[in-house]
Design a protein that fits this description.
single chain, four-stranded antiparallel sheet, alpha+beta, 342 residues, 13 strands, Rossmann fold, D-amino Acid Aminotransferase, Chain A, domain 1, 20% strand, 3 domains, six-stranded antiparallel sheet
């Protein structure tokens, strides 16, 4: 197949996306596909169709390392001639002339359904969920409301929007932007003095702020692949919580897969992941994050429609525990997307 791996974009998670995209592109090339990696935000002026782009831009391999610091989007805008345009030069015609676009995007435009809707209008085949499921899952508040309607446990919450700055949720609690990922803008608060500052800081990443009850327990993640729950993985950061740095810096977090838990708990969590997947109308793959309290209750924190594929990402580790190699996983996701479009 002729495949465009689309990564980067105007997002605080662009470096994670580029790291994932590099590995995906390498895997797909090893599997015999013709592949180019493009940055959604910048695109390319060098070609206007896949054939020309492949001739001018293809590489033997790709590599991108995620830095500890969250990308500076103001500085990124200064690098572009028309910074207000979120879809870069020739992205649409190149993607139209490819067999498949493998979405390796995280956050904002890449996961909130807007790009998926545009691609639907241009009849472009892409991996991952469609625009509706993507939009629902990216909006944490809406996703939690739907989970609750489907009797899926999720921590209690309140929402601050617009000029609201005074939360009523008691501490300890978790403060996070409504539509961001990779734990960007997330704060664990254990006293009232820090709560207001956490809300102000979270508002830097969006007007709507979600404040959640903090669940004291163990943290897990469960992928869903083609309707089936993958082995459960437990996440144990060596310091602090599972924030941006601990997610993407090698050796910062201990990840145990399959998790050292009872078979009964593992099966319940896998079923919960499938239930979330269906309730949010996601397509053939996703990954949901859970907290399990000391009394054994399973709380869903959120769902991810385009799980990370970096060297430290959870979804590939879970697939590997089922005997699916990274290269096989990439091919499977590509083929599932093609089958979905037919």
């Amino acid at each position: 197949m002729d495949i465009v791996v689309l990564a980067g974009g105007y997002s605080h998670e662009r470096e994670v996306s580029l790291s994932s995209g590099s590995l995906i592109a390498n895997a797909l090339m090893k599997n015999g596909h013709r592949v180019i990696l493009l940055d959604l935000y910048f695109g390319t002026k060098e070609a206007s169709n896949f054939e020309d782009a492949y001739e001018k831009l293809n590489k033997e391999s790709y590599y991108y390392k995620v830095e500890k610091q969250i990308p500076d989007l103001k500085a990124l805008k200064k690098q572009k001639e028309k910074p207000e345009e979120m879809i870069g030069d020739n992205i649409i015609p190149i993607c139209q002339s490819a067999d498949l676009v493998f979405l390796s995007l995280h956050g904002e435009l890449g996961e909130n359904g807007q790009l998926q809707a545009v691609f639907d209008l241009y009849d472009i085949t892409y991996t991952g969920s469609g625009y509706l499921g993507s939009a629902v899952a990216m909006n944490k508040i809406l996703a939690k409301e739907i989970m609750r309607q489907h009797n899926i446990l999720t921590p209690d919450w309140e929402v601050l929007e617009g000029g609201q700055t005074e939360p009523t949720m008691s501490v300890p609690c978790v403060v996070k932007p409504n539509a961001s990922g990779s734990s960007i803008g997330v704060y664990l608060v254990d006293n009232q003095d820090d709560l207001k500052q956490a809300v102000e800081s979270a508002k830097e990443y969006g007007e709507s702020v979600l404040i959640e009850e903090m669940i004291d327990g163990r943290e897990f993640s469960v992928g869903v692949l083609d309707g089936e729950g993958l082995p459960v993985i437990e996440i144990i950061p060596k310091t602090g919580f599972y924030d941006y740095e601990n997610k993407y810096q090698e050796g910062a977090t201990e990840e145990i897969c399959p998790a050292d838990i009872s078979e009964e708990l593992a099966e319940k969590m896998k079923q919960a992941a499938v239930d979330v997947h269906k309730a949010l109308r996601l397509d053939y793959y996703s990954r949901s994050d859970f907290m399990v309290s000391s009394d054994g209750n399973i709380y869903c924190i959120e769902a991810n429609t385009l799980p990370g594929m970096t060297p430290t990402s959870l979804f590939p580790q879970e697939a590997a525990a089922m005997g699916i190699s990274y290269n096989e996983l990439c091919d499977k996701l590509a083929n599932l997307a093609i089958n979905k479009s037919n």
